[in-house]
Every structure is written in C-alpha cells, then in structure tokens.
C-alpha cells in the first residue's frame, strides 16, 4: 500500500508513520554517505535525511546530481526532532525525481539586485521571505472578508471597465471600448454607493488602477482596494468602523502570523500599541500648523504629500485620522462641512504610524441632489456622464459614508517594509509590466 500524501505543515500529526511528501528541493548538503535534502511544498519546510544503504543505490547516486528546485516525491518515516524548525524530519526510504532542472537555478544564495529579482518575480516568489509576505497578505484578505461578513455586509463586485471617472482625470488608463471611451476603474466606490442604497451595508474588493507617474515607495499602478459603503452612517460612525477594522486586522496578523513576522524580522511592539489604544484624531488645519512647526512649507488648501505624512506619523505611536480637508483637495462627491461654511469637506484620511502614511481615505458622501449637481458644475464635470449616480440622490437619498483601504499599503506597514513592490505577487509600476 502506497504511503499517504501529507503536506509538510501536517507532518507533526504523523510521527512514526510512513508518508509521501511532494514538493521541491530548496537546498542540499551531503556528508559522505548521507544527503540532507531541504524540502518545501508551499505549506512548510522539512529536512529529509537520505542514508546510503537505506535507499536503492541508484536513488542515492541520483540525489547527488539534484539541482535546486528539482521537483520530487519523497517517501519516508516522520521522526520528531525538536531542533528542526518544523519539529520533525523525514527519514527517506524512497525518492522519485519528477523533474531535475537542466541548468542552475538563477536565484542563488548570493545577493541579487532588486531589478533582477523583480525580473525573475515568477521564481522569486518561491523564496522564504516571499513565502512569509504572501501568507501575511492572505491572512489580511481573509481577515477583511470575515470582518465584513460577520457585521452583515454584502459583497458587491464592481466593474473594472467603467465610463465614469471617480477620482479625477489625471490618473486614468483610457482605452477604446467598441465605439466609445472607457477607463480602467480607479475605484469601485460609485457603484458601491448604488449597492448601499439597495442593501444598506456593502463592500467591493478588487483591483484598481491609477495612471499616476509616481515613483515613490508607496505607489503601484495596479493595486487592490477594499471599499465599504454604509447607508445611514455619518463620518464619525465611518471612522469608528475603520478603526475597528484596522485593530482587528493587526490582532489577526499578530495571532496567526508570528512565524512570518519573525522571518521578516518585524518588531511587533509598534503593532501591539496599535491594538492597545484608541487612534488619534487631528483636524486638517491643526495638521498643517503642526507640519509647519516641524519644518514643512505646506499651506492651507494643499493635500498632504508623502513627505508630510511621513513626518506627521512619526509623531504618533498609533494611527491618526486627519479630518476635514479643504474641498478643493478632495473628490467631488464629498459632503461639504456645515461647520466650516463649506470650505472643507466631511472626510478623513487614516495615516499609519512609523512614517507609513495614508492607508485609508474616507468621507461622508453628499446626499443632496442639488448640492452634488452644483459641485459637479463648479468642477466643469458633465452631469450626463453621471446620470445614474445622480439618480441615487433623486430616489430615496439618505446620509451615507464609506472608505477605501489599500491592501498593499496596509501590508507594507504591518510588515515594516521600506517599499510596496514586494507585497503584491506581480507588481505593476510605471516601468514594470513583466512578468
């Protein structure tokens, strides 16, 4: 009877049993009559000990010629080993080589430049560091979906091809759509608003696109964003939901990704502070004054740039909401602030600490048809392009709010990375479309 196929992460449950592990060899060393095969299968890693005389001679000899990333089926007995990272090792009894590369694996133990690693991203994903990052990404995605599902939100997918501009014309990817122009979606928000008027609490989650020619460590041209919309929510309720989401996310990563954070050498003390206390709130005007005191030349009316966000968040040990930006610095759909003569809008950006800056942008939406139409005309927008969006204010309009949280920026902050490009499987930037 053939040994059962077992994933490496489950080997501890099979100590003393003969099992089959299917995977790849990521390292190997030999000592005379023993081969030490380091195996990975995506779920974990384990050492297979192959002793001459305990396996057929042709198998032992074949193992000498294995290249890195050879694909293998290894059968053997699981032995407990407290010294091993996996807690077990495999005493090899049989080796089946599925494919042994005909040339040396291009990513070796030596240091490689980032451009080379990104050019070979399809292979770099196999490394231990990338394994840790992708597992944390997966944990955060699952955490977000569970958070909204448990709170009664409905997932509503928004289109990637759209005829409506959500965040300004400067950052659009335009394409021909039969006999008309279309754009890659910058946001799913407008469609989520329509769904919120039908179902109350909804969210969309998918890829979004920005054609900004930005080279900063925070920007991608294609990234993933989760965007909830809630009927009958004001912006205070909106901000509380954002805080609850971020705290829940950090808690789950700390609880379920300890090994991965350790592999990234992430100091978790700053993350523990995020969970421990309430977030800070700062009015935009106060943020400008504080930045001026810290040496920035920002003035009222300017949006906070990346450098401003970095300086500002270095002053706080937990995330900070910057509220009530000037209306001309923000999108057309945001509600005018009645407490500020309409000079500002009822909105907030949530900035992550440690210099990471904005991870969430949110606002209360303008629910009044006339005020929204007038604002669109002020900005020389064509109302006919948004007739369906304006309809939402004509038929049962209610106060409502929402936000967008960037997945990759959130991962970058939680993992403590210097650049966003590693936290998405295949990054797209202004210079990179391959692989």
TrEMBL record:
Any one GO biological process: asparaginyl-tRNA aminoacylation
Annotated EC: 6.1.1.22
GO molecular function, one term: nucleic acid binding
Keyword set includes Aminoacyl-tRNA synthetase: yes
Keyword Aminoacyl-tRNA synthetase part of the UniProt annotation: yes
Residue ranges the record marks as coiled coil: 247-274
Protein name per its UniProtKB record: Asparagine--tRNA ligase
Lineage: Bacteria, Thermotogati, Synergistota, Synergistia, Synergistales
InterPro entries per the UniProt record, alphabetical: Aa-tRNA-synt_II (IPR004364), aa-tRNA-synth_II (IPR006195), aa-tRNA-synth_II/BPL/LPL (IPR045864), Asn-tRNA-ligase (IPR004522), Asp/Asn-tRNA-synth_IIb (IPR002312), NA-bd_OB-fold (IPR012340), NA-bd_OB_tRNA (IPR004365)
Keywords: Aminoacyl-tRNA synthetase, ATP-binding, Coiled coil, Cytoplasm, Ligase, Nucleotide-binding, Protein biosynthesis
Reactions this protein catalyses: tRNA(Asn) + L-asparagine + ATP = L-asparaginyl-tRNA(Asn) + AMP + diphosphate + H(+)
Any one GO cellular component localisation term in the record: cytoplasm
Family: Belongs to the class-II aminoacyl-tRNA synthetase family.
Primary localization: cytoplasm
Protein location: Cytoplasm
Sequence ranges assigned to domain Aminoacyl-transfer RNA synthetases class-II family profile in this UniProt record: 134-425
SUPFAM superfamilies the record matches: Class II aaRS and biotin synthetases, Nucleic acid-binding proteins
Record organism: Pyramidobacter porci
Subunit record text: Homodimer.
């Amino acid at each position: 009877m053939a040994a059962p196929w077992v994933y490496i992460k489950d080997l501890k449950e099979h100590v003393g049993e003969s099992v089959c592990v299917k995977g790849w060899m990521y390292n190997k060393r030999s000592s005379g009559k023993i081969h030490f095969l380091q195996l990975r299968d995506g779920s974990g890693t384990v050492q297979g000990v192959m002793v001459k005389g305990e396996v057929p001679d042709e198998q032992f000899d074949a193992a000498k010629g294995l290249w890195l990333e050879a694909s293998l089926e290894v059968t053997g007995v699981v032995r407990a080993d407290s010294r091993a990272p996996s807690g077990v090792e495999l005493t090899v009894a049989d080796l089946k080589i599925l494919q042994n590369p005909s040339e040396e694996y291009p990513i070796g133990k030596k240091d490689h430049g980032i451009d080379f690693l990104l050019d070979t991203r399809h292979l770099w994903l196999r490394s231990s560091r990338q394994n840790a990052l992708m597992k944390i990404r997966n944990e955060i995605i699952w955490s977000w979906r569970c958070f909204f599902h448990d709170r009664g939100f409905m997932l509503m997918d928004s289109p990637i091809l759209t005829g409506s501009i959500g965040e300004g014309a400067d950052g659009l990817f335009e394409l021909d759509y039969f006999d008309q122009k279309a754009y890659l979606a910058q946001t799913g928000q407008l469609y989520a608003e329509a769904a919120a008027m039908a179902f109350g609490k909804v969210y969309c989650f998918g890829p979004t696109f920005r054609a900004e020619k930005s080279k900063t460590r925070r920007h991608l041209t294609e990234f993933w964003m989760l965007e909830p919309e809630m009927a009958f929510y004001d912006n205070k309720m909106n901000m509380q939901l954002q805080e609850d989401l971020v705290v829940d996310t950090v808690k789950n990563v700390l609880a379920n990704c300890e090994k991965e954070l350790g592999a990234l050498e992430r100091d978790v003390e700053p993350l523990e502070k995020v969970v421990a206390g309430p977030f800070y709130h700062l009015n935009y005007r106060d943020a400008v004054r504080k930045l001026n005191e810290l040496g920035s030349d920002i003035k009222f009316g300017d949006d906070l740039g990346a450098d401003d966000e970095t300086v500002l968040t270095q002053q706080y040990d937990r995330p900070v909401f910057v509220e009530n930006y000037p209306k001309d610095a923000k999108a057309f759909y945001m509600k005018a602030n009645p407490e500020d003569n309409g000079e500002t809008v009822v909105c907030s950006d949530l900035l992550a600490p440690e210099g990471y800056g904005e991870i969430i942008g949110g606002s209360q939406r303008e629910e009044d048809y006339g005020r929204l139409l007038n604002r669109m005309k002020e900005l020389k927008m064509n109302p006919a392009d948004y007739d369906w969006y304006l309809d939402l204010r004509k038929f049962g309009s209610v106060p409502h709010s929402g936000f967008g949280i960037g997945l990759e920026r959130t991962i970058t902050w939680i993992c403590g990375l210097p650049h966003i490009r590693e936290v998405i499987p295949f990054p797209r930037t202004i210079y990179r479309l391959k692989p």
